[in-house]
Amino acid sequence: MLRLVAADSCGPLAGELAAAYEASHPWVTVQTVVFDSAVAEETLRIGGADLALLSWLETDDEEEKIPWSHPFGRDGIAVVVHPTSLLTEIGLVHLQDIFRGRVQEWGGEVLTVVSREEGSGTRAAFENSVLGAHDVTLAAVAMPSTATVIGYVARTPGAIGYVSARWLDGRVRALPVEGVYPNRAAVSDGSYPLARSFYLAAMAEPTGETREFAQWVLGMEGQAIVERW
Questions:
Q1: Residues 6 or more apart from 133 whose CB is under 8 A from it?
Q2: Structure confidence at residue 228 (pLDDT)
Q3: CA gap 62, 85 in Å, rounded
C-alpha cells in the first residue's frame, strides 16, 4: 500500500492521480487522505504517509525544511467574488487594501473578506504575495477549506475571497488580477501574479513503490493529468 497525504488544494488532483496510478498498476493500492497543508506536512513528518502533495513549502529555517521535495505542477490562486459583485478586476495594491481592511466597500456595496484558516498553504501563498508583512483584517471570515470558501462567496453578495484556480466551477466569479485571468496558460508562463507550485515531498529520497509513483507523477502520464484543468 502507498500512503499519500494531500493539502486541501491538491485534494482532487491527488485523487485523480491515485485512481489513474491504481488503474495502470493494479497490484498497488493508493490510500489518500486530505488535510490543510500544515496538517498534511505534520502527518508526513510523523510517519503517517509515504509521500505528501503540498500546496506550500517555504521556510527560512534549514532545520525545518522537508528533506526531499520536487515541484510537480503550478497553480493559480484565484481571487473570487459573488457573481453580482461590482468588482470586475483588481490590482495587487487594491487587493492588499481590501484584505487589510483599509477598503471596506466598493460602489456602495459592503465587502466581506473571506480568508482561509491558519495552516492553509493557499493562505500562506496568498499572504506572502499580497499582504507581505501585514496581517489580514480581524473582520475576515476564516473558512476551513477551499470548498467552504467557494460556498460562502457564492451565497454572500459583497464577499471576496481566494481559492485554488483548479477549483473554479462557475458558482463564483474569478477576477483578473493586474489585468490577467488565472487560466492555465497565464499561470504556467508566469504572467498571472498569484501563482505557486505544488510539491511532492518525503522525509527521505523516495525508494521502492514511493519512488515509482513519484516518477510516474513527474512523467508523461502523470503530467497529462496535472495539466488537465
A1: none
A2: 87
A3: 44
Helix and strand numbers (H, E) in the chain are 8, 11
Was domain 2-74+197-226 assigned CATH 3.40.190.10? yes
Which of 57-66, 111-120, 136-145, 175-184 is the least confident region? 57-66
Return the amino acid letter for 20.
A
Interatomic CA distance for residues 98 and 192, integer angstroms: 19
pLDDT of residue 60: 62
Q: What kind of fold does domain 75-189 have according to CATH? A: D-Maltodextrin-Binding Protein; domain 2 (3.40.190)
Residue 134 has phi, psi (to 5 degrees) of -85, 160
Phi then psi dihedrals of residue 171, to 5 deg: -75, -25
Query: Over 70: is that where the pLDDT of 59 sits?
Result: no
Q: How far apart are CA 32 and CA 52, in angstroms?
A: 9
Q: Do 75-189 and 2-74+197-226 have the same topology in CATH?
A: yes
What mean pLDDT comes out for the span 185-211? 96
The Cα–Cα gap between 222 and 55 comes to 17
Distance CA 91, CA 97 (A): 10
**Cα–chain center distance at 217:** 18
Distance CA 133, CA 163 (A): 21
- By the 10 Å C-beta count (0-12 exposed, 13-18 middle, 19+ buried), 80 is classed as buried
Backbone angles phi, psi at 64, to 5 degrees: -90, -10
Ranges of each domain in the chain = 2-74+197-226, 75-189
Cell 510539491: give the residue.
199
